[in-house]
TrEMBL record:
GO molecular function, one term: nicotinate-nucleotide-dimethylbenzimidazole phosphoribosyltransferase activity
GO biological process, one term: cobalamin biosynthetic process
Protein name: Nicotinate-nucleotide--dimethylbenzimidazole phosphoribosyltransferase
InterPro entries: Nict_dMeBzImd_PRibTrfase (IPR003200), Nict_dMeBzImd_PRibTrfase_bact (IPR017846), Nict_dMeBzImd_PRibTrfase_N (IPR023195), Nict_dMeBzImd_PRibTrfase_sf (IPR036087)
Organism: hydrocarbon metagenome
Enzyme Commission number(s): 2.4.2.21
CDD domains from the UniProt entry: DMB-PRT_CobT
Family: Belongs to the CobT family.
The keyword Transferase is assigned to this record: yes
NCBIfam families linked to this entry: cobT_DBIPRT (TIGR03160), PRK00105.1 (NF000996)
Pathway: Nucleoside biosynthesis; alpha-ribazole biosynthesis; alpha-ribazole from 5,6-dimethylbenzimidazole: step 1/2
Keywords (A to Z) from UniProt: Cobalamin biosynthesis, Glycosyltransferase, Transferase
Reaction(s) this enzyme catalyzes, per UniProt: 5,6-dimethylbenzimidazole + nicotinate beta-D-ribonucleotide = alpha-ribazole 5'-phosphate + nicotinate + H(+)
């Protein structure tokens, strides 16, 4: 608990003056003001986060947190639980979409086992930080104990601190956990009071009956556990997931170190919502990579106050959308640092 408390204590606002200086420079470049849209917004945000008018990027890291979910027993997923372990192995042998896209973006993938069920995975690239082998079935009891949810949060903080210490300048969030859109929708329902019909999607592709089971499981879990909507840790503990908690820790840890976080899809943005509820300044360190097909994702983004960079009809997770956004974020840095001003180029500005 001490690490979590200390991390929350040092999160502070971004440097608004640096952001203003970045905007001033952007307005002096050879283009109409604001004509590069969200690229300019990202450049200003990065400047404010880093505290310098012209931001810079170096190492890029995708942090993939993996954990299983007891609620899978309720038939909420189209895939069996062992796929979590199988896909993590696929990540480690560089065969998944996140590996391909990260290679293209020159980003490093860091995979952490925070709660996978099954036999231990032995691989030198896997970080084993298992809090427990999957959450409990939230339909019957709380998904985690108080100690477990804090431990999972602190795994995320420790892991992101380690990557920043190694030179990471921007972090992307990724996850793997069969069934994890169910706890994500449950957290969203608890924190916003939104109707499950509006926010619960098909996840990995469940049919109509599967979708009905999923909504029923969420309703029952909320009824059984009575999460306190005003207490984000209570909600996360009772109806959340180990990898969602760890990603929340990643976001908190990065914000404390003034490092930008590129948030992936529905599950990652659920972690973003929890982080935002734990500390309001976290919002300013997050960049929303995309708007996914999951119906609750738009509501999540609105709750956190984030605007998606891309809309590509993605629903894979893993961090894929966040890695795709790396390319645009790097473009925004190139724009502010390499474009000529009107004065430098000898181009007449508007009157």
């Amino acid at each position: 608990m001490e690490l979590l408390k200390n991390t929350l204590a040092v999160i502070s606002d971004v440097d608004r003056e640096a952001g203003k200086q970045a905007q001033k420079r952007l307005d002096s470049l050879t283009k109409p003001p604001g004509s590069l849209g969200i690229l300019e917004e990202i450049a200003v945000q990065l400047a404010a986060i880093q505290g310098k008018a012209i931001p810079a990027l170096g190492q890029k890291v995708v942090m993939v947190m993996a954990g299983d979910h007891g609620v899978v027993e309720e038939g909420v997923s189209a895939f069996p639980q062992e796929v979590t372990q199988q896909m993590v192995i696929n990540f480690l042998y560089h065969g998944a979409a996140i590996n391909v896209l990260s290679y293209q973006a020159d980003a490093r993938v860091v995979v952490t086992d925070v709660g996978i069920k099954g036999d231990p995975i032995e691989h030198p690239e896997l970080n084993i930080r298992k809090v427990r082998p999957g959450t409990r079935n939230m339909v019957k009891e709380a998904a985690m104990t108080e100690d477990e949810v804090v431990a999972a949060l602190e795994v995320g903080i420790m892991m992101v601190n380690g990557e920043i210490d190694k030179g990471a300048t921007i972090i992307a969030t990724g996850e793997m956990g069969i069934g994890n859109t169910t706890p994500s929708a449950a957290i969203l329902a608890c924190m916003t009071g939104k109707d499950l019909e509006l926010i619960t999607g098909r996840g990995t592709g469940v049919d109509d009956q599967g979708l009905m089971r999923k909504r029923a499981a969420i309703r029952k879990a909320i009824e059984v556990n009575s999460p306190d909507a005003a207490d984000p840790l209570d909600v996360l503990r009772k109806v959340g997931g180990l990898e969602i908690a760890a990603l929340t820790g990643v976001i908190l840890g990065a914000a404390a170190r003034k490092v930008p976080v590129v948030v992936d899809g529905f599950i990652s943005t659920t972690a973003a919502l929890v982080a935002h509820k734990l500390h309001r300044y976290c919002q300013y360190y997050m960049i929303a990579s995309h708007l996914s097909q999951e119906p609750g994702h738009k509501i999540l983004l609105e709750e956190v106050g984030l605007k998606p960079t891309l809309q590509l009809d993605l629903r894979l997770g893993e961090g894929t959308g966040a890695v795709l956004a790396f390319n645009l974020i790097e473009a925004s840095v190139k724009i502010i640092s390499e474009m000529a001003t009107f004065e430098e180029a000898g181009v007449s500005n508007k009157d």
